[in-house]
Amino acid sequence: MTGEQFRDAATSVVNDIERYYTTLPSRPVVPSVSPGYIQKLLPTEPPAKGEAWQDIENDIERTIMPGITHWQSPKFMAFFPASSTYPGILGEMWSAALTAPAFNWICSPAVTELETVVLDWLAQILGLPEAFLSKGEGGGVIQGSASEAIVTVMVAARERFIRRQLEREGITDAEEIEDRSCELRGKLVALGSDQAHSSTKKAAIIAGTRFRSLTTSRSDNYALTGAQLRTKLEDLTSRGLHPYYLTVTLGTTNTCAIDDIASLASVARDYPDLWIHCDGAYAGAALVLPEYHQSLSNHLTHVDSFDVNMHKWLLTNFDASCLYIQKRRDLTDALSITPAYLQNHFSDSGLVTDYRDWQIPLGRRFRALKIWFVIRTWGVEGLRQHIRRHLHFGDIFAGLVRERSDLFSILVPPRFALTVLTVNPRRKQRTVLDEQAEGGDPRPYEAQHVPVMAETDDEELREANEITKEVYTAIDERKEFFLTASVIGEAYAIRVVS
Ligand code: PLP
């Protein structure tokens, strides 16, 4: 493809992309294809001769679109959102144009330096404590996903624990260090609540340590508390195990619960080797609102690391997971290995950042560009408006559900534009309707609405689960909207992200 052909092809692609976004609301949000559909549409052998661009481009609509789940569709209310915006797409285009696996500063100084600047900007927007800014001992780094961030900090936590323990034991001989490290690893325990994302358990598998889950309760709205942590820590240490890592979540996947960071941190003060990571993959984006700075951002002084996916709720195309750490040495001490072929005088000078030492892979993409484009296009005010708009949609939806308290119950208070609801068992629906028909409840209609699901007996729970599953399956089969169902505690529930 020549430069001129590229210009024509790119113009046509941009036009098609714009048309795609315009037609998005009318496309079915979930595809109807069967597994293996694409193999049936494509030749089994690769093309012997190169093809014309137009033929390739035509295959987007013919071959790819039928198998696309449209995450940007207004009818997509499943999981958590995945942002896509035009400035984000333009950032991806430039990143592709300047493609470079810029692992060291010298591999493209702009890639490293822009990343440091935009992550400092974002830290300020989110009201993160100063310790997470690059001007001190901390800083931010872009990872591919929240899961990757968790593995990365868990490995740093493991190595920090082992290093400190070896120091305490005065072990300096290389072989002894290796033997004792292996012994200690077998006793290390990573922790997360039963509502923490599964990536914490997966990270523990990768880090080669144990994992224990802490049970949350409905009465705490599925948030983890200091009391639960203390009991677990005391139990583990009394059995000679070493808890070394804890994920606390700001906005759990199931219900957007916020773990009680202040009480957890106060317990953790008695366990100074416990690394606390705050997973704000989705709801961390809400910290752009100043009203959360006092109540949430300030508590992050107590955590070692914090992560938010800009690619979920902050208008930036996948992938852009922003990991912040209070002491960058904790990462680099664990992950920095410098063979001769990676040495250069800039790195040796200690004056530059080599982000390869802050992550698992060596090579890295120019992801800071799209964040830069997004923050500059929206400005802080625009980002705040965007989040407020979604919170408003969430309030509207939760209000509509409350208006039909004969049919639905809300499981936990709606938060961060997520409403989690169950369908009432048929006999309960009848009772509410009968009461209303008989004028049995003298309170005004609004006041009758049950804000959250009341405690249920076993039989009622079983019936509620059954009918909620039925309703979810019917919605799923209609393919008009895409929602997610989950099991929370013992309740089968439907999640709606507005
Ligand atoms: N943490 C939370 C709270 C999540 O909800 C999710 C995914 O939705 C993740 C982590 C994993 O995110 P990623 O796909 O970026 O690894």
Automatic annotation (TrEMBL):
Which chain regions cross the lipid bilayer?
Answer: none
Q: Which GO terms describe its biological process?
A: amino acid metabolic process; carboxylic acid metabolic process
Lyase among keywords? yes
Q: Which GO terms describe its cellular component?
A: cytoplasm
Q: Which residues carry this modification: N6-(pyridoxal phosphate)lysine?
A: K312
Could you give a GO molecular-function term held by this entry? Answer: pyridoxal phosphate binding
The organism's place on the tree of life at top rank: Eukaryota
Question: Which Gene3D superfamilies does this chain map to?
Answer: Aspartate Aminotransferase, domain 1, dopa decarboxylase, N-terminal domain, Type I PLP-dependent aspartate aminotransferase-like (Major domain)
Cofactor(s) needed, names only, are: pyridoxal 5'-phosphate
Keywords carried by this UniProt record? Decarboxylase, Lyase, Pyridoxal phosphate
Similarity section: Belongs to the group II decarboxylase family.
Alphabetized PANTHER family for the sequence = GROUP II PYRIDOXAL-5-PHOSPHATE DECARBOXYLASE, MIP05841P
User: This chain belongs to which protein, by name?
Assistant: Aromatic-L-amino-acid decarboxylase
In its UniProt entry, the species of origin is given as Salinomyces thailandicus
